[in-house]
Amino acid sequence: MSRACRRFGWLRGLVLAIAGLGVVVPSASAQLPAEPSVPIEVTKPTPTKRASPSSGTVDRSSLLRQFTTGNPMVWALGLCSIATLGFSLERFVALRRSRVIPKEFVRKFHERLSGGKLDRERGLELCRANDSPVARVFAEVIRNWGQPAASIRQAVSSGAASEVLDLKRNVRALNATATLAPLLGLLGTVVGMIESFEALGGKAGIAKGEALAQGISLALVATAIGLAIAVVSVVMYYYLLNKVDVLIRELDDEARLVVDQICAETLRPAVVDRRVGDSMARHESRGY
C-alpha cells in the first residue's frame, strides 16, 4: 500500500510539474515587450532626368538663334548672299538675247538696207526707234556712212566700248562676292571659336568638352556658308561672262555686215558705174 501511495504521489508530482510549466511559459511570454512593427517602404525607381542644353547636349532648336546672336559675321554673309542673288537675276534679265539682239529689228534693218530703202537719215531714225544694244551699234555705223571700212570699224570699236561695259556691268560684282564670301566665313569661324573658348571659363569635365564641341560646330557654320556663297558666285560669274562674250561676238558680226554695205569701197563702184552709164548715154545722143 505504501508502494502504491509512493507511485501515486510521484505521478501526482509529475503532473503538477508539467502543469506548472504550462502556466509559467505563457506568463513569461506575456511579460515580454512587443516589438514595434516597422512598415516596409517600397522604393520606386526614380525616372532619369533628361539632360538640359546647359549640361552639354546640343539643342538643335536654338542653334540658329545662338548663331545669329553670337556671331556678327552672319549678317555680313547674309548681305553677301543677297547681293549674289540680286546681281545674278539682274544679269539674267539684262542679257537676254531678245533684249540685246532683237531678231525682228535685225532682219528688218538688213532687208531695208540691202533693198536700197535706207539712207543715213532713215537708218538713224530706225535705230533710234529701237532701244537695244544692237540698234545703238548700227547707229554708230550709220553715222560714218560712205567712209572707208577701216575708219568705220575703228569708230564703231571706240563707240561700242560703252555697250560692252554696259553688258559686263554687275558681272564683276559676282567676282567680288566670290572672293569676299570665304574671307567673311573664315573671319566668322575665328570669332565664333574665340567666343566659345571664352565661355568655357566656369565649366569642367565632360560639360566643358561638350560645350567646346558645340561652340566649334557653330563657328564652322560660318565657313560653310561662305564657301557655299563663293561656289554660287563663281559659277554665275563664269556663266554670265561667257554669255557676254557670245553676245559681243554676234554684235560684231552684225556690225560687219552693215559696214560692208555702206563703206566707201562698196558705194564707189556703183557711183562709177552710174557715171559711166551717163557718159555713154550722152555720147550716143550726140552721135544721133
Please, could you describe this protein's structure?
The chain has a domain at 61-182 and 233-276. The protein is built from twelve helices and no strands. It has helices spanning 2-31, 63-70, 73-94, 97-100, 103-114, 120-129, 133-142, 149-159, 161-167, 171-198, 206-262, 264-287. The protein is rod-shaped.
- Percent of sequence in beta strands: under 5%
**Largest sheet descriptor:** none
Number of helices: 12
Helix content: over 70%
Low-confidence stretches at least 5 residues in length (pLDDT < 50)?
A: 20-43, 45-58
Which term fits the overall shape?
Answer: rod-shaped
Question: What is the radius of gyration?
Answer: 53 Å
Mean pLDDT: 75
Q: Please write the string of helix (H) and strand (E) elements.
A: HHHHHHHHHHHH
Report how far the terminal alpha carbons are from each other: 215 Å
What is this structure's SSE topology?
Layout: H1 2-31, H2 63-70, H3 73-94, H4 97-100, H5 103-114, H6 120-129, H7 133-142, H8 149-159, H9 161-167, H10 171-198, H11 206-262, H12 264-287
Helix pairs in contact: 3-10, 3-11, 5-11, 6-7, 7-11, 8-11, 10-11
